[in-house]
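User: Can you help me understand a structure? I only have the sequence.
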Amino acid sequence: MRSTSYHPLPVTPTTWVDRAPKGLRPYLYLTRVDKPIGTLLLFYPCTWSITMASYALNTSPLVPFTYVTLFGIGALVMRGAGCTINDMWDHKLDKAVERTRARPIAAGDITPRQAFWSLAPQLSAGLAVLTQLNWYSILLGASSLSLVVIYPFMKRITYWPQAVLGLAFNWGALLGWSAVAGSVDWAVAAPLYAGGVLWTLVYDTIYAHQDKADDVLVGIRSSALFLGQRTRPVLGAFSAGAVGLISYAGFLNDHGALFFAGAGLAGAQLARIVWRTNFDDRKSCWDGFVGCGKAGLFIWAGALADYTYMKVTQVEEQETSSSE
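Assistant: Let's start by predicting it. Here is the structure, written out as tokens:
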């Protein structure tokens, strides 16, 4: 295995977190609010299913707007809670990994007990969001918590913790649908969810390549270590599978050309990243990881454009009909 390049990374720019009260900063860093990409990666699958379900049911625009807003808040809160749980279990390992040893618990800025108590307001906020949904969705959402809890342990027992993360991070592809429709249309949502899981395998394998040298030393397992020099072709296949499954979901949902244009842009973005990323360079891996988020945005943009086109067309048809 090649060693990962350790050239100095650009200095992290000052963010609003650095200007927050000193006692609050460790908790803000613990929840990664200074790195919104994680929240977006959790948020986008929710937007896919909310918009696609709204399209299928021909809902008022207020429906997707309301649920996208609600799920955006939920993604922010639950991503923070997930990071807190992860750091509580991993703080000893984080001390041994160069990129993570500055995390608040590993650095000694706060204790695991303090981190545990900080979960209370986070989970309470998440529960407040969840209880705005129907009972089917409440039960479906609660069932995903087991994945959040077990994920930190997976890197100790399997080379594919990224798969467990994918199952957890794309739960919104199911939950968003049930929030709008009252239940999940599994024929459409299942391939959408599976495509999202493959998308996660792509971006989180790239992410894991940042730490592979340290991971070998401390005994952490990852898909990056398992794949090694096979990473590029395998991630290429995962990318094709992700776009293919999401496109299939769009086909089953009777979407139009705009949806597939978004999926095509997502595929092109993933192909560019997989082709260009230097998996032995931390900066390149980080850029590739962040770039994968744009693929999720393109999918949502395509679905939203298709939904908007449908609603505009309906208004025009109504105006034409009323004028006759």
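Now, to help you interpret it: Confidence is low (pLDDT under 50) at residues 6-11. The two ends are 72 Å apart (CA to CA). Let me know which part you'd like to focus on.
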